[in-house]
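Q&A log
Question type: sequence-to-structure
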Amino acid sequence: MRTGRRHFLGGLIATGLIPKPTWADAGSPAFLAAAGTAQGDFLLCGLRADLSISFKLPLPARGHAGAGHPKRPEAVAFARRPGTFAVVINCATGQQVATLTAPEGRHFYGHGTFSADGSTLYTTENDYDAGQGRIGLWDAANGYRRMGEWNSGGVGPHDIRRLPGSDVLIVANGGIDTHPETGRVKLNIPTMRPNLTYIDRGTVVEQARLPEEMHKNSIRHLAVSDAGDVALGMQWEGDGSPEGLVATHRRGEAIQLMQAPRDDVRRMNGYIGSMACSVDGTSIAATSPRGNEVQLFDGKTGKLVQAKTIEDACGVATSGSRFVVTSGTGAVEVLASKKRTKQPFMFDNHLVALGAAI
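Response status: OK
Response body:
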């Protein structure tokens, strides 16, 4: 009887009649976030659109950002830079299905993204002996086997995204060189040259740079609208206060700095922790955990339209026409609404939306 049932189930699987697992099998999360507990443990969390927790799974060390697979309930959790590992977790079962280890002479920068069909994972990495950025390629269809790497087009690649509807990659080359032997020490501030790079199948097809006087404004975090407009958040490594820390870019054009009064720029304390933009690109959110501030910009006019104080706010992602913000205090809040909650752990830097344009 049992043998017959196994044969029956095996036949269903072979014919594809049993549905493949989806994100609904992991509790239908809308977002991913790394977090820590008061006891010193580390987690990867799934958050639903109503701000409840759909899952919380253990991580071997502190996480930074995650990448959600576009086809199956699988997430990659990246170590905080300059980490050398990432773990792949089946979020429906809680099982770790693969471990990514940076090749010798490389370290991860805490971010990655999948190809549109989910077959390839791209990771930002540092070739620390050469002092050059690399994009690692991992075969997500075959146990996350390392397939090779591409030049990132600069130094210190941090965030990486895809242009919607394509596999053109957008890379935030922050310009800051680091080495595992010196941890998070920045080795080249006087000569750093950040850029925004577009890569198509391994070829750099376009680059955009800040004006020379802003070369110490490290491009760190990205958000992309459905139309392909890119919002970028920066980290100031110079003296005093920068002219701005948030900008936008569209292919074929120059980087456009968002406009904010000097006092509002100073309140961000030289550091943008995360970026998000509305689907149509008309609204852009930037967070600063160092400034305890969230700022909203008009994506069309480039002007600051709203600022809100939230203690240790960093993670931010789009939820419909609004933004969800997570904090190191455990707070989760939907801006411009009364929807908020607090979880018994500390959220790390990023809130990653699950969807086709991850």
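Response note: Confidence is low (pLDDT under 50) at residues 5-10.
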